[in-house]
Write a structure and sequence with these properties.
The protein is mostly helical. It has six helices and three strands. A three-stranded parallel sheet has the order 1-2-3, covered by helices on one side. Helix 5 runs parallel beside helix 6.
């Protein structure tokens, strides 16, 4: 892993940095348009509000670094839940799937299994949710 990536990942885990940054009014204003909140429910509510105007969205889960395969499974389940809601509510949304969140840095095989599971749900007949796969440079 490159030194800049290590620094950015460490900074992204800094609660102290996040709290100070988000207290700044300019930061809240800048982020609000592109990130309506930190929970999936926030993103889905914003998607529902934009749907009548035919404005589609890309939904992604915050964070990158995992410390165990159980976290990758939790992320997979998060994406599966998002797919279900998007399909059920007919929302104009695409899920941005990050292999780093599915454990590629921990186990290529486990990540591949998680990606295959997501793809199998995404591509089954009647699915209406799109996906993008963000492949990191190795």
């Amino acid at each position: 892993m490159s030194i800049p990536r290590k620094i950015l990942l460490r900074a992204s885990r800094s609660r102290w940095l996040a709290e100070r940054f988000m207290r700044r009014p300019f930061a809240r204003r800048a982020v609000k348009r592109f990130m309506p909140g930190e929970e999936l429910s926030d993103a889905l509510a914003a998607t529902k509000a934009l749907a009548p105007d035919r404005i589609g969205v890309i939904i992604t889960r915050l964070g990158e670094a995992l410390t165990g395969e159980s976290q990758a499974d939790a992320v997979r389940d998060h994406y599966l839940g998002a797919y279900d809601t998007i399909k059920h509510d007919h929302l104009p949304a695409v899920i941005s799937v990050k292999p780093t969140q599915l454990g590629i840095d921990l186990s290529f095989e486990a990540c591949l299994t998680n990606m295959e599971r997501l793809a199998s749900v995404r591509w089954k007949p009647g699915a209406s949710c799109g996906s993008t796969w963000r492949i990191p440079r190795m």
